[in-house]
């Protein structure tokens, strides 16, 4: 993001009207006042010369990629550096001379993340601010519950968008569901990394058809998604899961995105983690004791990963080799067709 300095709005004369000193003396204060009222966020003073605007300090998010927006007072500093958990981040544009600096789609770690924002004047450090962000995730044992005092952060509200609307189009009501030029989508400028460098990209996301899933209207928060997730997913991903006798918890709750990333992933089926890691994130008892039964040695249990998959040659064995992750007609969410547990075991173990 390359915000427009206030001088852009105050320092250019009209090509049609030449202003003399008298005219300037009358109109310049009016122009300045008009500029400041039109862009109150740009004109607001910044205590200490630097501030984190988005996401706000001590907030929690439920996505691993966020865009940081930092406000600087160019009378106090002329450069900004941000470190996340000790690692310096790259700004989206040249921060020098800008009122706002975007650090484009930086990757948070599950749980607490420590930000340090440092302001410089002509290469000399003059101010520093520490901020905290919490990435809440059900797939990490220490990241499931935000700390006390942290509030859920959503960027797309009318008040938050005031920071960016002087330079960016954030009116999505006329956005095509299938844009002819995806790169011109108003979502692309800030969210292009959502789909960058992944093996698999979900169809609507790949063509920047964001409004196929995200609501463009409504009061309060914009670009929300209907809840539960299945209201958005099932119109395209038809299934007969509801007819099964047993439903997996996320399936029963309609929570598709608990396991699947709706934008992109390096895992098959857009899973958030490798299949067995994903399952163990909730079923942690599987990782702490032998699974199913101990072998004849009395030590090892049934493998849940790495071994060759007898049902899918060329693939690794995972939890989903035996269990259907969505629904089943058999106890324990077992896949396939069988009349007893013993018969199911005989699918692989001939005895």
Key terms for this structure?
351 residues, alpha+beta, Immunoglobulin-like, 6-stranded mixed sheet, 3-stranded antiparallel sheet, 11 helices, disordered N terminus
Short description:
18% of the residues lie in helices and 19% in strands.
Describe the 3D structure.
The structure is a single chain. Helices cover 18% and strands 19% of the residues. It is α+β, with helices and mostly antiparallel strands and 351 residues long. The chain has two domains: 1-168, Immunoglobulins (Immunoglobulin-like, Sandwich); 246-345, no CATH class. Strand 7 and strand 8 form a beta hairpin. Mean pLDDT is 80; it is low at 1-19 and 23-43.
CATH architecture of the largest domain: Sandwich
The CATH C-level class name of the largest domain = Mainly Beta
- The Cα radius of gyration reads 27 Å
Helix content: 10-25%
Strand content: 15-25%
Largest sheet: 6 strands, mixed
What is the count of helical runs? 11
Q: Count of DSSP E strands?
A: 13
CATH fold assignment of the largest domain: Immunoglobulin-like
| Gap from first CA to last CA | 65 Å
């Amino acid at each position: 993001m390359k915000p427009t300095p206030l001088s852009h709005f105050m320092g250019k004369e009209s090509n049609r009207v030449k202003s003399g000193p008298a005219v300037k003396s009358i109109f310049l204060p009016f122009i300045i006042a008009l500029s400041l009222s039109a862009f109150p966020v740009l004109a607001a003073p910044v205590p200490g010369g630097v501030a984190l605007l988005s996401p706000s300090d001590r907030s929690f998010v439920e996505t691993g990629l966020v865009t940081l927006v930092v406000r600087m007072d160019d009378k106090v500093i002329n450069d900004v550096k941000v470190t996340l958990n000790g690692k310096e981040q790259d700004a989206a544009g040249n921060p020098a001379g800008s009122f706002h600096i975007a650090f484009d789609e930086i990757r948070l770690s599950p749980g607490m993340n420590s930000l340090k924002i440092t302001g410089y004047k002509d290469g000399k450090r003059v101010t520093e601010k520490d901020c905290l962000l919490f990435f809440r995730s059900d797939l990490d044992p220490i990241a499931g519950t935000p700390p006390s005092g942290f509030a859920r952060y959503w960027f797309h509200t009318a008040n938050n968008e005031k920071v960016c609307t002087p330079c960016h189009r954030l009116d999505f009501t006329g956005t095509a569901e299938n844009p002819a030029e995806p790169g011109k989508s108003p979502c692309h400028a800030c969210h292009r990394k959502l789909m960058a460098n992944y093996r698999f990209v979900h169809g609507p996301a790949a063509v920047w058809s964001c409004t196929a899933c995200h609501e463009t209207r409504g009061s309060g928060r914009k670009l929300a998604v209907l809840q539960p997730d299945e209201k958005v997913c099932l119109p395209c991903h038809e299934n007969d899961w509801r007819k099964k006798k047993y439903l997996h918890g996320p399936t029963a709750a309609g929570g598709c995105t608990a396991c699947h990333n709706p934008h992109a992933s390096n895992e098959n089926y857009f899973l958030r983690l490798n299949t067995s890691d994903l399952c163990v994130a909730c079923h942690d008892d599987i990782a702490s004791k032998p699974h199913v039964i101990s072998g004849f040695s009395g030590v090892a249990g049934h493998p849940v990963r790495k071994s060759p998959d007898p049902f899918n040659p060329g693939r690794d064995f995972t939890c989903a080799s035996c269990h259907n992750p969505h629904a089943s007609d058999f106890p324990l969410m077992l896949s396939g067709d069988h009349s007893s547990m013993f018969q199911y075991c005989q699918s692989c173990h001939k005895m």
